[in-house]
């Protein structure tokens, strides 16, 4: 029997994830939407870094980055990713594994437009993951794009979102004596139904 009730209750993992994130927004000192994003490079060597989860959609999770970055190259070749969110204040984590596609349309334009001007210009100035000679050369690049693009820069073609469409979502909550609660939601693909099972801690 799947007794996923209380904080685990629900028929939709995106809804539960949204609920947990909303709780974390009230308790975490900063960046409650930070996720550790794992990718794999062309040699099969895993890679991980933090990014900010910007949207929980009806059927996917979305974050934004530079399309020339190391992570983007890894995502574009493997089309797969995993991420974990951990909230120290709540003692909970959510793990996600899935298939990745680009969000480089109106959603990306809208999110880019919602960022501060400095962040928008910063996206233009940074050749993310490439070697940088000095801090001064980055600041010079910022000054250059600021002069060139003015107060309304368009979204760079090399900057946008990725959408993770999960096949696995696991909700974990701390329990006494390390007897934690884990509920794993699994589906074969985005069109199939979720199966939920409790896992040993
Ligand atoms: C809390 C936190 C949030 C971050 N959010 C983002 C983000 O949303 N997008 C991004 O591209 N990098 C973000 N970064 C920087 C990444 O961790 C990473 O340094 C950068 O994306 C380059 O990674 P890569 O070389 O593996 O592509 C964040 C870092 C931290 C610590």
Automatic annotation (TrEMBL):
It catalyses: pyridoxamine 5'-phosphate + O2 + H2O = pyridoxal 5'-phosphate + H2O2 + NH4(+); pyridoxine 5'-phosphate + O2 = pyridoxal 5'-phosphate + H2O2. Substrate binds at residues 54, 111, 115, 119, 178-180. It is an enzyme of class 1 (oxidoreductase). Residues 159-201 form the Pyridoxine 5'-phosphate oxidase dimerisation C-terminal domain. Keywords: Flavoprotein, FMN, Oxidoreductase, Pyridoxine biosynthesis. InterPro entries: Pyridox_Oxase, Pyridox_Oxase_CS, Pyridox_Oxase_N, Pyridoxamine_oxidase_dimer_C, Split_barrel_FMN-bd. Gene3D superfamilies: Electron Transport, Fmn-binding Protein, Chain A. Binds 1 FMN per subunit. One of its GO terms (biological process) is pyridoxine biosynthetic process. PROSITE patterns: PYRIDOX_OXIDASE. One of its GO terms (molecular function) is FMN binding. It holds the Pfam family PNP_phzG_C. FMN binds at residues 49-54, 64-65, 71, 93, 128-129, 172, 182. Its cofactor is FMN. Pathway: Cofactor metabolism; pyridoxal 5'-phosphate salvage; pyridoxal 5'-phosphate from pyridoxine 5'-phosphate: step 1/1; Cofactor metabolism; pyridoxal 5'-phosphate salvage; pyridoxal 5'-phosphate from pyridoxamine 5'-phosphate: step 1/1. Its EC number is 1.4.3.5. Residues 23-146 form the Pyridoxamine 5'-phosphate oxidase N-terminal domain. Catalyzes the oxidation of either pyridoxine 5'-phosphate (PNP) or pyridoxamine 5'-phosphate (PMP) into pyridoxal 5'-phosphate (PLP). Belongs to the pyridoxamine 5'-phosphate oxidase family. Homodimer. PANTHER family: PYRIDOXINE-5'-PHOSPHATE OXIDASE, PYRIDOXINE-5-PHOSPHATE OXIDASE. This is Pyridoxine/pyridoxamine 5'-phosphate oxidase. It comes from Ruegeria conchae.
